[in-house]
Write a structure and sequence with these properties.
CATH architecture: Up-down Bundle
CATH superfamily: Metal-sensitive repressor, helix protomer
Strand content: under 5%
Strand order of the largest sheet: 1-2
CATH class: Mainly Alpha
Radius of gyration: 17 Å
Mean pLDDT: 91
Number of domains: 1
Distance between the termini: 25 Å
Order of helices and strands: EEHHH
Largest sheet: 2 strands, antiparallel
Shape: elongated
Low-confidence stretches: none
CATH topology: Methane Monooxygenase Hydroxylase, Chain G, domain 1
Structural class: mainly alpha
Helix content: over 70%
Number of helices: 3
Length: about 100
């Protein structure tokens, strides 16, 4: 499978509800990151900034768990059912990145 600028050619069609849920979470995370930037610009206390960074990291971790769960239940199951064991290797490689 070739990649262009780090993006896979594979697709996962999501329902409108899934897209809405994920985008809502991403909008919140984006707001958190903008808030952290404003804190830096306004010389906020280091611990206060770090607290907000930790909250943003937790939100990204939560988003990742949702996407991984969906990937396993949809993409991996479908791949295995079709005899594509490569999806398991791909999943394991991805999980290793999250467990560093």
């Amino acid at each position: 499978m070739s990649e262009i600028e780090g993006e896979s050619q594979k697709k996962r069609i999501r329902t409108e509800e899934e897209k809405k849920t994920l985008c809502t979470r991403l909008n919140r995370i984006e707001g958190q990151v903008r808030g952290i930037k404003k804190m830096i610009e306004s010389d906020s206390y280091c611990i206060d900034v770090l607290t907000q960074v930790s909250a943003a990291q937790a939100a990204l971790t939560s988003l990742s768990r949702i996407i991984i769960d969906s990937h396993i239940r949809n993409c991996v199951v479908k791949g295995v059912e079709e005899g594509n064991e490569q999806v398991l290797d791909e999943l394991m490689d991805t999980l290793k990145k999250f467990m560093k």
